[in-house]
Task: inverse folding
């Protein structure tokens, strides 16, 4: 039996509408509506979206307004976002920022990297500065996106695990890792456009591991004993060797002809990997999902530990090596979404973890788990029992 829960359902009676370009004028228009809804009650607010995007600062201003408290220091209203037709660029970020995000089945969602208009004639110095700013901005927005959608993405992983053994059997590869099975599971469900994003993320994730293994081999004593500057210096040396080896069959390849750009990309990819590999969010994943992933014998061993802190640490120690590849791939995916023009269908957005639910589609969602209650047992009277016995 499904019992509707207001925290998971769009409500047009408590809603604001983001339509057209997101700019200061839009913020000014919706501010009175939003404040009125917040003052009326602390129940969820729905944000309907049909927008080509716009100014990132204006989008962030809308998010701040949505998260306002009140004079009684109440918590913010729960936010349900819903794309009706289109959510592109800043509007796509707004969609994924909802506590619960919905997509109508024919809607389209577009992600791309940060853009900037040049206000002055471009020089070598200005071009270099803009490139640096755009790279840093893309990195920041990728990690902000990761924070917004990590629960959705990890939910996809958990609901797909029941298919992993079948995938191994079909591929005749019993040694396939959980991550490899998950990547195959999702890839089969994506449109051609979304599959390109998925493949870019796979490529980026492969570069993570390849580069990291190279650095470990080149760094005496391990990375943990070095200062950041020394690690970066060793990284650059190792990346130079890595690029030369990777391009040894291409006689026309050189650092002057594109190699320096590849070296810079590799350096930032490696820095990104090292920055996130030990991230606190990975520890959170390990704590939340650990007992669903480990064999029963390992769970029993952990449960037998009396001290709660020691038990939690043991769980993290055992699960982190399993989930770390998934986490680093997830980070790679968030960065892949910040590169190129990524036009996604509603179902694509669901499988990539960008939205929680596609309205009307038979796809598992957190709402179904939250709203489901077992049907009550039939009320059998004593007379009915006697009749059946006769």
Result:
């Amino acid at each position: 039996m499904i019992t509707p829960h207001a925290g998971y359902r769009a409500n047009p009676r408590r809603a604001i509408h983001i339509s057209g370009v997101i700019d200061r004028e839009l913020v000014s228009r919706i501010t009175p509506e939003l404040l009125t809804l917040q003052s009326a009650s602390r129940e969820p607010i729905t944000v309907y979206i049909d927008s080509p995007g716009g100014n990132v600062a204006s989008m962030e201003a809308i998010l701040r307004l949505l998260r306002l408290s009140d004079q009684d220091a109440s918590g913010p209203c729960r936010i349900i976002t819903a794309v009706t037709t289109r959510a592109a660029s800043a509007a796509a970020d707004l969609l994924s920022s909802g506590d619960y995000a919905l997509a109508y089945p024919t809607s389209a969602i577009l992600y791309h990297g940060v853009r900037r208009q040049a206000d002055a004639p471009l020089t070598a110095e200005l071009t270099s500065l803009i490139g640096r700013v755009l790279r840093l901005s893309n990195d920041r927005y990728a990690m902000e996106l990761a924070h917004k959608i990590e629960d959705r993405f990890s939910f996809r992983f958990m609901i797909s695990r029941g298919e992993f053994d079948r995938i191994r059997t079909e591929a005749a590869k019993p040694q396939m890792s959980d991550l490899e099975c998950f990547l195959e599971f999702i890839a089969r469900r994506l449109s051609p456009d979304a599959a390109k994003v998925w493949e870019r993320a796979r490529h980026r994730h492969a570069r993570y591991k390849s580069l990291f293994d190279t650095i470990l081999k080149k760094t005496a004593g391990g990375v943990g004993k070095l200062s950041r500057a020394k690690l970066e210096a060793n990284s650059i040396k190792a990346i130079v060797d890595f690029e030369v080896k990777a391009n040894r069959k291409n006689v026309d390849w050189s650092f002057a002809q594109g190699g320096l750009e590849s070296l810079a990309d590799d350096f930032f990819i490696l820095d990104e990997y090292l920055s996130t590999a030990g991230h606190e969010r990975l520890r959170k994943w390990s704590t939340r999902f650990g007992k669903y992933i480990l064999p029963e014998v390992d769970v029993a061993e952990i449960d037998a530990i009396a001290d709660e802190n020691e038990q939690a640490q043991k769980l993290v120690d055992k699960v982190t090596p399993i989930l770390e590849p998934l986490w680093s791939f997830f980070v790679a995916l968030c960065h892949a979404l910040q590169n190129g023009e990524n036009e996604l269908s509603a179902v694509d957005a669901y499988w990539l973890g960008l939205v929680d639910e596609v309205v009307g589609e038979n796809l598992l969602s957190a709402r179904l788990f939250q709203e489901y209650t077992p049907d009550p047992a039939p009320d059998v009277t004593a007379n009915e029992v006697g009749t059946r016995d006769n």
